[in-house]
Amino acid sequence: MVKKSAERIYLAFIFLFLYLPIGVLIVLSFNNSKTRVQWGGFTLKWYKNLFSSGSIMEAFGTTLFISLASALFATLLGTLAALGIDAMKKRNQAVMIGATNIPLLNADIVTGLSMMLLFVRFTRLGMSTVLIAHITFNIPYVILNVLPKLKQSSRTTYEAALDLGATPLYAFFKIIWPQIRPGVFSGFLMAMTMSLDDFSVTYFTKGAGIHTLSTMIYTEMRKGIRLEMYALSTILFLLALVLLLFMNFGPSARREEA
Amino acid sequence: MRNVKRQLLAGPYLLWMAGFILLPVVMILYYAFTTTSGHFTLLNISSIFASIHLKSLFLSLKLAVICTGVCLALSYPLAMILNNMKEKSQGFIVFIFILPMWMNFMLRILAWKLLLSNNGVINTILEGLGLPVLDVLNTPAAVVFCMVYDFLPFMILPIYNAMSRIQQDIIEAAGDLGAGSVTIFFKIIVPLTMPGVVSGIIMVFVPALTSFAISDLLGGGKVLLIGNVIEQAFMQEYNWNLGSGLSLVLMIFVIASMALMSSKGEEGGAGVW
């Protein structure tokens, strides 16, 4: 009994630690007061201002564009790469996977800086350099999600299909694709999350005048943050909550378990 | 024959990798070993021994070790409690403890700053209760708090995963053979969760060692970690050679700590039986 309540208290303590900061952000996003921590009544004005603020909406758009585009491109390149790597000899596979791990293991700051050093040699920093950088650190997540699925899939079925006269492309979409699809999707989602959350790599590879939400908040936190940002973080948190609830406990998640 | 054709699918990735993974590493190496005029030098590397740089490297190592230790101390009991829960509610509760990870990294720092600032939430509450206020913002403690907050889920998840894979039969068998709960904990649970602990430590230690944003925003310029020194060398002093040299040193520390941890993990795993 004592053990049980001690466990409860411990869980509550960690829960408070994790959610108190988020809760404070959410409460303050409804606060009608300039002094931040004093309660000045309920208001929705920060939400209204948020949607009419050009710079925040632009940064939001840039963030979405970069994470979607980089995740899509990384998924394409990464899935093709996984198919190729899977067909290689053991030793070549090990080399490829080792090289793939470099951006995963390297510190973000070094990844970002090293790419900046390369980019400024050949071009100006801008949106495209951020995009290239994000694709680069996204590809490993796709490969590492797709490769295990390929290893599990049966080669013989694919070869049987070819023997029975299917073209390689037809056999791929009928046999291999259904088997690796979950890996491709989770790779895509992981890549998008990493890209959405990234600060360091974006910070070093972006050109002047381009902001993602992360770099914008960073700049504002040093000068003084607009209260619209609290409203934005509330919305983003709720979005993540709904999305994850749906992914984990939605109808499709249940079916996979069964 | 068909195999060779399929291997070509990795071609575009191979080119991408050469251009954007290997070439940048070569660039860092080039800048690290040259002077601004392009002559070979070791000064950029050896400048890590300058007292300011050495001080920030030690501070980074210290804070990263504290942060990793706190995360481990908080996560291990949490993972055990979560693992012992009823099957039905378990999935949802684990989800709750992982969810903050999906909040934007910068927003988490912002939230934490709101709590800690001198006229922030915690101090307003303390004042209201007539207690002395905390002056923690712009100190290393604030940086460690925020690092723990940011990286805690990275420790919880692998330990919990390792723990949930332990088969109940083994624990029951040990109990039947007369092992007490302390023996079971040290002889079975700890060794079998070692791989999870090791990957948790790596996933927390490396970002904590190399981060610069948290110390920049919550340290108020007073907490200078090695990441901050590198960032300033690049973005403020435009001394790319020095920055590259220090980056290289940082890379070596990251690789060394990972190698050390992985070997420890194997030893721990092998020493069980």
SSE layout:
The complex is a heterodimer of chains A (258) and B (273).
Chain A: H1 2-28, H2 45-52, H3 54-86, H4 90-105, H5 108-122, H6 127-152, H7 155-163, H8 168-197, H9 200-205, H10 213-223, H11 228-249, H12 251-257
Helix pairs in contact in A: 1-11, 2-11, 3-6, 3-8, 4-6, 6-8, 7-8, 11-12
Chain B: H1 2-7, H2 11-32, H3 43-46, H4 51-83, H5 87-98, H6 105-116, H7 121-128, H8 140-164, H9 168-176, H10 181-210, H11 213-218, H12 226-235, H13 240-270
Quick recap:
Chain A has 258 residues and is mostly helical. Helix content of chain A is 81%, strand content 0%.
Description:
The complex is a heterodimer of chains A (258) and B (273). With 258 residues, chain A is an all-alpha fold. The two termini of chain A are 35 Å apart. Chain A folds into 2 domains: 79 residues, no CATH class; 172 residues, Orthogonal Bundle (MetI-like fold). The longest helix of chain A is centred in the first third of the chain and has 33 residues. In chain A, helix 1 packs across helix 11, helix 3 crosses helix 8 and helix 6 packs across helix 8. Chain A is built from 12 helices and no strands. Chain B has 273 residues and is mainly α. Chain B has 2 domains: 32 residues, no CATH class; 227 residues, MetI-like fold. Chain B has 13 helices and no strands. Chain B is globular and about 70 Å long. The C terminus of chain B is likely disordered. The chains are: A mainly alpha (258), B mainly alpha (273).
Name a few traits of the molecule.
heterodimer, A: 258 residues, mainly alpha, MetI-like fold, 81% helix, B: 273 residues, disordered C terminus
Q: Which architecture of the largest domain in chain B would the CATH scheme give at its second level?
A: Orthogonal Bundle
- The structure class of chain A reads mainly alpha
CATH superfamily of the largest domain in chain A: MetI-like
The CATH class of the largest domain in chain B turns out to be Mainly Alpha
Rg of chain A, nearest Å? 23 Å
Low-confidence stretches of chain A: 254-258
| Corresponding CATH architecture of the largest domain in chain A | Orthogonal Bundle
Main sheet overview of chain B:
none
Approximately what portion of the residues of chain B adopt beta-strand conformation? under 5%
What string gives the helices and strands of chain A in order? HHHHHHHHHHHH
Secondary-structure-based class of chain B equals: mainly alpha
Question: Largest interface, with Cβ-Cβ < 8 Å?
Answer: A-B, 79 and 76 residues
Strand content of chain A: under 5%
The proportion of residues forming helix of chain A, as a percent range, comes to over 70%
Q: In DSSP terms, counting alpha (H) and pi (I) runs of 4 or more, how many helices of chain B?
A: 13
Please, what is the average pLDDT of chain B? 84
Total number of helices of chain A: 12
- What is the domain tally of chain A? 2
